[in-house]
Amino acid sequence: xxxxxxxxxxxxxxxxxxxxxxxxxxxxxxxxxxxxxxxxxxxxxxxxxxxxxxxxxxxxxxxxxxxxxxxxxxxxxxxxxxxxxxxxxxxxxxxxxxxxxxxxxxxxxxxxxxxxxxxxxxxxxxxxxxxxxxxxxxxxxxxxxxxxxxxxxxxxxxxxxxxxxxxxxxxxxxxxxxxxxxxxxxxxxxxxxxxxxxx
Length: 199
Prior knowledge:
The protein is α+β, with helices and mostly antiparallel strands and 199 residues long. Helix content is 24%, strand content 37%. The chain has helices at 2-6, 11-23, 147-155, 178-197; strands at 28-34, 37-42, 47-53, 56-63, 80-87, 90-97, 109-114, 119-123, 141-145, 158-164, 170-175. The strands form two sheets. A seven-stranded antiparallel beta sheet has the order 1-2-3-4-5-6-9. The protein has a four-stranded antiparallel beta sheet with strand order 8-7-10-11. β1 (28-34) and β2 (37-42) form a beta hairpin. α3 crosses α4 (178-197). Residues 1-7 have low confidence and may be disordered.
């Protein structure tokens, strides 16, 4: 009897539950049908859309955990924004570049170092022109990634990144703070989940 009184449902408990769901990063809260598209709303304020157009299928973030666009920014330096997208059967990690990294061009390379000392080297390319009815993402450059590389971002924390020109000249290097690294992994988990189950 004591426990039933203690855990009896009330408005306060319901509101607390709603709040926990809202801030749970990878909890699918609801879906919405759009014209030729479906919107997936996750806890932590991530909103992801899978769109069907005459050009094919596309997946993009309308909002991520820390921004209204598909960008993530380490608070300690304002050099790189990271997001994910899919266009047809190709998957990409996308970048918005600031400060000295704006000198990066297609053909240059960015390397991610993970906590387990594994490294991932990615060749940069230009982003696609407007995919779908309007431009749904903002990025300077992108790099194609495989489903296995998506899984790497999903399961491992990124420790740092470095960038270099195609001629080998080092252009920038930075460690990621714990909060940014965790949010990037959570974004990767949401992206990987939608690729596997809905895309």
